[in-house]
Amino acid sequence: MWFSGLRGAIAFALALHLPFEEETKQVIVSTTLIIVLFTILVMGGATMPATKLVTYLAERQNGRARLESEDRHHLDQSSDMSQDEGEYVHVQTNPASPTSDEYMLSKTVEFGRSMNIDDVDEHVAGQKMEHHNTLPPSKPNASQEESQNSFRIFFILCVLLIAILLVYLLIKFKFHYLPESIAIVVLGFIVGGIFQLFKHFNIGNFQEEEMLNPTIFFLVMLPPIIFESGYSLHKGNFFANLGSIVLFAVVGTAISAFTVGAGLYVLGEAKISYALTAKQSFGFGALISAVDPVATLAIFSAIDVHPTLYMLVFGESVLNDAVSIVMTDTIIHFNDTEAGSAIGSAIGDFFLSFCMSGVVGVVFALVLALLLKHLALQKTPSLEFCTVCLFAYGPYFLAEGLRLSGIMAILSSGIVMSHYAHYNLSFMTQVTVQQVFRTFAFLAESCVFAYLGMAIFSFTHSFQPAFIIWSIILCLAGRGLNIGLLTLLANRFRQTKITPQQQFIMWFSGLRGAIAFALALHLPFEEETKQVIVSTTLIIVLFTILVMGGATM
């Protein structure tokens, strides 16, 4: 117990929060770090040998005592005991003998150690009490930040709990006319309205809790959704329609972005709607052309659609996000004096991002498959599952760090993992991976849709009715032009033709979601223009999810 009193991260974190002078704090933090490392590396590493040594000594002492007892028993029953044997017994039982001395010495040392430990514990406890009485109050900023973050997490957990109960009621009563995603958006709208009433009556300000952080969305919420969709993807249908998917995702997104951007610019110049510059118009057209995979998956998963139709819409929605992100970034940094080189650079950036992101995901998945094949991780399912989680999230963050497409990287990783790495897992880990990532994806989707519902109250909006109406009309027109023209081209090379009914569903299911909204929040435009674009994007997102998504079923 004395030797295993290891210090760790709690002591180091407490040292970082001490409200002392900078020099004193640095000394305490450095000393704490050294003590933590010493106890973990030295004492922690020596705990196992010390434990074995103590166990060995105890077993040896017990063996000696057992031998002494057996010798006494045999000597007492023996009638012809010799003098030598008597002397031997006398030596063994003499208190002054070395064996007894060792025994008494060990008992004394154990007793002394126990007394010393108690004394040390009392001394440390006294020091803690004295330190507690003399410790000045901590900085209010750190305490307030911790309290706010804790309350924000509790708020998210409460909203998720209500969303789970709402989905359960929809399933229990078999109310299939309302998709789960739309129900959660309505829930977020109601929660945001309630908090707005609280703010009106000065009960509290919950604006920070209601606000969707774009960084949290892209780095925390989106990866599990895309990975789970790729891991559970029907690979045969996906690769059979890969050509059409790439056609709709790349060329179709460009058509839609040009239609929206050019139309809004012309309408603004004609004073029919809110006026935007050419860069602002085409930037908005690029971001609003992102067909959201989260919303599409949620709607299509709730209904029974044809596998080919599902794969076309889903594949397009996943791949065109990379196109929209690259296109939006290129237009924002567009230089009017170098128009030709900027367009060529945009095309090169997209193909580089598309190909390299896929390579990153495939490499991660193949390395995982080889590790699982040649390492016996199946014997320790916890380590096996942790390895899968690290390789699942690794390609997304690496691709984002390299300024590539994390969505494409994690999608390709999920597809290849399900084909090669999945069958190298133990049965327990196979079930665990599927259930855990499905659970994470559901929680992330619920957060996204709840935040979209609350976003109507959490931002300072600037609604321009004419601009909103024309934006919706141009989005529908661009989507129709995209689907109509490219379907004619795709059907010339497809064995299974895309029927007019499927074309209508593809046009009608071009849902916008949190990706477009998060991109709008990142626009580096003037405050007034940015408010108009963010408000319009939010209205289009809610319109496509609630109206078009609800009517799709």
List the helices and strands and how they pair.
Elements: H1 9-16, H2 22-77, H3 83-93, H4 98-134, H5 140-172, H6 180-200, H7 207-210, H8 214-231, H9 235-240, H10 242-269, H11 278-288, H12 293-301, H13 307-332, H14 339-374, H15 381-401, H16 406-421, H17 427-458, H18 465-491, H19 500-508, H20 514-521, H21 527-552
Task: Using brief descriptors, characterize the structure shown.
80% helix, 553 residues, mainly alpha
Characterize the structure shown.
This protein has 553 residues and is an all-alpha fold. The chain is 80% helix and 0% strand. The longest helix is centred in the N-terminal third of the chain and has 56 residues. The chain starts with 8 loop residues before the first helix and ends with a helix. The relative contact order is 0.10.
